């Protein structure tokens, strides 16, 4: 039986090989411990404090700031939030409406 070398995983942040002694599992990938940091505040992350968006990792606080609800009086209830359609998250349908999208039955108008 021929020798098969072990699979080498590459760190998503620095693209260098990650060996078993230095690996941290998070967001479905293997990272170096020093590379597993928040994309905004650079805080060291753990498996319980990580939030992932489009392959990038953030601490839960920065993730909420960047991708959470926006508007004046954040946390004050639904009446204070803006009508953000989510364009920054890749939502293409910006025409938001509360009108039903079905036809009315015949004779109702």
TrEMBL record:
<dbReference type="Pfam" id="PF00412">
    <property type="entry name" value="LIM"/>
</dbReference>
<keyword id="KW-0479">Metal-binding</keyword>
<keyword id="KW-0862">Zinc</keyword>
<keyword id="KW-0539">Nucleus</keyword>
<dbReference type="GO" id="GO:0045214">
    <property type="term" value="P:sarcomere organization"/>
</dbReference>
<dbReference type="GO" id="GO:0042805">
    <property type="term" value="F:actinin binding"/>
</dbReference>
<dbReference type="GO" id="GO:0060537">
    <property type="term" value="P:muscle tissue development"/>
</dbReference>
<dbReference type="GO" id="GO:0046872">
    <property type="term" value="F:metal ion binding"/>
</dbReference>
<feature type="domain" description="LIM zinc-binding">
    <location>
        <begin position="9"/>
        <end position="69"/>
    </location>
</feature>
<dbReference type="GO" id="GO:0008307">
    <property type="term" value="F:structural constituent of muscle"/>
</dbReference>
<dbReference type="GO" id="GO:0030018">
    <property type="term" value="C:Z disc"/>
</dbReference>
<dbReference type="InterPro" id="IPR001781">
    <property type="entry name" value="Znf_LIM"/>
</dbReference>
<keyword id="KW-0677">Repeat</keyword>
<keyword id="KW-0440">LIM domain</keyword>
<protein>
    <recommendedName>
        <fullName>LIM zinc-binding domain-containing protein</fullName>
    </recommendedName>
</protein>
<dbReference type="GO" id="GO:0005634">
    <property type="term" value="C:nucleus"/>
</dbReference>
